[in-house]
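Example 262.
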Amino acid sequence: MTKLGKKTKVFFVGSGPGDPELITVKGRRLLGDADIIVYAGSLVKERVLKYARSDADIHDSASMNLEEIMKVMVDAARAGKKVVRLHSGDPTLYSALREQADILEKEGVPYEVVPGVSSAFASAAALKRELTLPEITQTVIFTRLEGRTPMPEKEQMSELAKHNATMCIFLSIGMVENVIKELKKGYPGETPVAVVYRATWEDEKIIKGRLKDIVKKVKKAGIERQAMIIVGEALEGKISAKGKRSKLYDKGFAHGYRKKRA
Ligand code: SAH
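Predicted structure in complex with S-adenosyl-L-homocysteine:
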């Protein structure tokens, strides 16, 4: 077996939500340098691969199992090649990062994780909404509905809904009726909810509604995959009577960089 070269590292890189301009400068540089790229097929749009060298060896992990993926990456790293593992959005959310990282650690292959713009943030930007609003909510929950991956008991969606915080729901649009049924156990039916299909792609679609009517709208639009569901009072069109401006830019509020004004 080839000895591990000094500088070989596997880079897990977040590709961002789809728009090729939303990869980080670092991610783009690493892609451009890579000898081998393994990308997560369905959502990493092939167009970010345009930053890759024309002679790079490119693998779509959609048709590979974990052992096959890891063999490609470990062998390449050991041969002194530059390896990039490309994930959609940010690699620390729903990316099976940990199981890959654990194997690299076991094999003694060093690695680094390069963040990306999560689809949760791309969706909030598409909606032009701040996920945290003073005195409305200061908390964001990233979650999903139970699918083949069971949810821990304390994280049942109906339980999380009781906080009435902003919630970004991944991987669940195919079960939108169940999502809404669970959310209604905690949020009032009037709570705003939005579905963003393929945020930042050319065919991005935004559906806005309230818990009481969103299912019909989503069905009508025919959205069944690749969508983010965001729910919470923070999506409301105007800051409601309850809402307050932040202290950050309040003229009556002083901080380290600004004096208080009358
Ligand atoms: N690591 C990724 C999430 C991977 S899980 C991230 O940070 O975005 C895949 C889920 O992410 C999809 O089921 C969908 O809910 C969401 N998703 C990924 N890309 C999206 C996009 N461009 N627009 C809306 N939702 C997206």
